[in-house]
Sequence to fold (71 residues):
Amino acid sequence: MAEESVYKYIELTGVSGKSWEQAMNNAITKAGQSLRDLRVAEVITQDVRIDDNKIVEYRVRMKLSFKYEKE
Fold:
């Protein structure tokens, strides 16, 4: 019989001065330092911060799931 699992979602915003991909990677890497069994990241929005008509920051808001384990 297959094991039944439960997953929890949290919402995070990753930030980078280089790209949306790096912003997403930054958020996942940081979350992985305190959460175990990360599973799926779902991008909700992508935006940029502009200063002096130039992109200075890429931001990715995402939902991140991880396996829920009863304490």
